[in-house]
């Protein structure tokens, strides 16, 4: 709490300019939780009596008693921008060689910090893309790379939302993308998934602007997509081609929403039956003769991506083609019975003798490359704050690349998608498919109960 030159009580957030950046995720979460307390205290000073304040303000509520960092510095209430920092001179735009910030900064910004204790990549991608779309909506400059920051770092605040330079991370997702965000942006005039279209559009804008694979992966994905699309082409002129039905199967530590499967997984037969129903509906309604229908259907393919290596070898999905074969996860039984090496350039976990049993589990991910080996079970999570070894980083990179290439091929090659909406990867695929194909043309098929598409889990 501070007092301005006119003697009025205000509140602000003081982060010493020489603090390391970014702060710990918990520190950002603590700042947000303390915001409400100090804001309520200052408001009570004006009424001289304690009164009950709204439990939840509107998403764009502006607290007239909040003083942004730059304003507090201008009033001499916080150390000014001339304070020396611990940052290297080359790491900050506008910073001269003696470590002082001299040049102008952007008027408003949003900075997305990727650090998170969530081993999964899906929800972080959803937050990243949605944050980008939200920043554009609010007229904020958007920053991601933590090596160059136009705004002084101590002015980046996780709360309140109307701070000039807003910082967004997984630790503060509930404040940025929680009930207030949904309440403000949901389209109350619509029903079901159509209420979510504004949030979908934010994420789609972020996907279009930010989704870029590494060069060698991008080249492989482009070739793989062209190969898959080529398989659907029927010979001759004037005939329709087959279609690509993408199937995404998430196992591991992500359980379905549907109650009867909450302790297991959606049966694989359900994915296959849905895919085959899509094919029947697509071609039975065409104007082709029987021969044309049969030919188009025969040139249709099922494309599969899963975190569970055993799904690829399952009898139910034996007809499906893997989305990508550049990086493959292997189960223990495949390690015990190694298969012949694949195409040149293929890299997989067989070489490392790491079994990805049953799908993606967070403890398994955090334990990759650790000198003390893997955990005996997928229950106890290792200490995620221990600096990873070079080997751990290499293996984590492979997992991340495989995940992104799976999504890229499935999302860009498929005409229809079959998946479980409880999975972040499934919701991402809807964004990659686009609103028109996903919902207006019913190309997004959820097999996890009757739940609609949703965005970020917080």
TrEMBL record:
One of its GO terms (molecular function) is alpha-(1->6)-fucosyltransferase activity. One of its GO terms (biological process) is protein N-linked glycosylation. This is Uncharacterized protein. It comes from Glarea lozoyensis (strain ATCC 74030 / MF5533).
């Amino acid at each position: 709490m501070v007092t301005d030159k006119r003697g009025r009580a205000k509140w602000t957030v003081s982060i010493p300019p020489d603090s390391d950046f970014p702060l710990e995720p918990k520190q950002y979460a603590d700042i947000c939780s303390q915001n409400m307390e100090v804001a309520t205290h200052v408001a009570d000073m004006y009424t001289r009596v304690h009164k009950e304040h709204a439990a939840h303000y509107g998403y764009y509520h502006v607290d007239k008693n909040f003083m942004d960092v730059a304003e507090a510095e201008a009033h001499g209430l916080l150390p000014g921008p001339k304070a020396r920092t611990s940052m290297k001179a080359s790491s900050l735009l506008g910073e001269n060689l003696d470590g002082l910030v001299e040049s102008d900064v952007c008027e408003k910004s949003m900075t997305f910090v990727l650090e998170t204790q969530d081993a999964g990549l899906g929800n972080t991608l959803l937050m990243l893309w949605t944050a980008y779309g939200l920043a554009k909506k609010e007229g904020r400059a958007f920053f991601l790379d933590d090596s160059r920051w136009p705004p002084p770092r101590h002015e980046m605040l996780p709360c309140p939302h109307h701070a000039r330079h807003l910082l967004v991370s997984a630790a503060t997702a509930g404040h940025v993308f929680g009930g207030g965000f949904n309440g403000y942006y949901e389209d109350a005039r619509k029903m079901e998934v159509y209420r979510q279209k504004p949030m979908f559009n934010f994420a789609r804008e972020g996907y279009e602007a930010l989704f870029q694979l590494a060069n060698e992966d991008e080249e492989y994905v482009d070739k793989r997509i062209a190969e898959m699309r080529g398989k659907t082409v029927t010979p001759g002129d004037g005939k329709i081609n087959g279609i690509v039905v993408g199937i995404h199967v998430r196992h591991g530590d992500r359980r379905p929403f549907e109650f009867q499967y909450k302790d297991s997984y959606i049966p694989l037969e359900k994915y296959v039956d849905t895919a085959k129903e899509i094919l029947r509906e697509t071609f039975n309604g065409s104007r082709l003769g029987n021969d044309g229908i049969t030919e188009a259907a025969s040139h249709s393919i099922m494309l599969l991506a899963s975190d569970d290596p055993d799904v690829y070898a399952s009898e139910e999905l034996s007809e499906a083609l893997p989305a990508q074969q550049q990086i493959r996860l292997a189960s223990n039984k495949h390690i015990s019975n190694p298969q012949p090496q694949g195409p040149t350039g293929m890299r997989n976990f067989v070489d490392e003798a790491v079994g990805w049993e049953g799908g993606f589990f967070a403890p398994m991910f955090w334990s990759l490359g650790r000198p003390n080996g893997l955990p005996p079970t997928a229950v106890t999570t290792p200490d995620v704050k221990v600096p990873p070894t070079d080997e751990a980083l290499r293996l984590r990179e492979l997992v991340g690349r495989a995940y992104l290439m799976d999504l890229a091929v499935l999302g860009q090659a498929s005409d229809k998608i079959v998946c479980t909406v409880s999975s972040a990867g499934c919701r991402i695929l809807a964004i990659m498919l686009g609103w028109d194909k996903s919902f207006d043309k019913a190309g997004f098929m959820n097999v996890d109960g009757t739940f609609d598409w949703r965005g970020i889990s917080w």
